[in-house]
Known about the structure:
Layout: H1 24-32, H2 37-49, H3 57-64, H4 69-82, H5 85-91, E1 101-106, E2 112-117, H6 120-133, H7 144-160, E3 177-179, H8 181-186, E4 190-193, E5 197-200, H9 201-209, E6 212-213, E7 216-218, E8 224-227, E9 231-232, H10 236-246, E10 261-265, E11 280-284, H11 285-293, E12 297-301, E13 304-308
Antiparallel strand pairs: 1-2, 3-4, 4-5, 6-9, 7-8, 10-11, 12-13
Helix pairs in contact: 2-3, 2-4, 3-4, 6-7, 9-11
Amino acid sequence: MDRAGQPVHAVITPTGQPLGPLHSATGSALAEHDLSDGHLRELTRAITKLRLPDDSEPILVDAALSLEPKSVRQSADRIRDRIDQDGIDELDEPAAEPADVLYVRDLPGGRVEFWGELSAETGARFTAMLEPLSQPRPDGPKDRAHRLREAFGDLVGLASRYERLPSEAGERPHISVTVDFETLRRGVGHAVLDGDHYLSEAQARRIACNAKIIPVVMGGDSEVLDPGRTKRTVNVAQRKALHARDRGCAFPGCSRPPKWTDAHHVRHWADGGDTDLGNLVLLCRAHHSLVHHSQWSITMTGGVPVFIPPRHVDPAQLPRQNLLHRPPVAIAA
């Protein structure tokens, strides 16, 4: 890097592509201030990709010294929008370059990393879906990054239930979890996700709550003896009844609507729990995970789910209800 301001600095993207040289104003800012990689990417995009006029660079550098990278990008886009229409047409990206690009990479333990760039139209739609789901909640994550993570997971869950998703080899998009019945029943052991990633027993139970279950009889050497037919644990009529009763996530204080919830078995089917309304409760993704990975318990009182907190949350373990969706029911002492 030339700290004298010469245009020799290059930033490398996650795909290994250099972002190009930076001009004198940017170089001077680098010499005198600490600019993040995000700021450098936005400045480079404005200079090399949008090809903005030279006199716009100092404006964007000043913005980078006081604003977040996202705001620098917005400033660059506003400058571009003020250029006459002929100039905008000339600056349009070549048709051969896709407007929406997404890179996905598998990480150890089944985790997935992804990054990319969305067109203005796709980005606006994506943001419009994420924003309502990522609003702060009293019992939710405080930082925006973790709220967006939960919101993105909710979007994936909703999309996976969309009936018009394309199929592959005759099957709708799905994941496969292989788990021994004794693991589910006794709570000891692990499950396998899509053939090579391990899940805990609690994770397997949570997935099984809102899934199509395909029982497979295994021999002593893990030989498949009898693959069964798919059995849906909660049918459409039951789902509608749950929507009418719980009116959203039933966890105390949660305002998530029904469409963002899973049907949770109060007593898991592996423990002999029935798939009927008296044993089902709607929980959003975050609270569904909390119930399976903590000591919260649920009882049904007057046909309404009541939650008992663990002692470290409330030493008295007083029962709680969600009062946002419906009025309280009387709870016996």
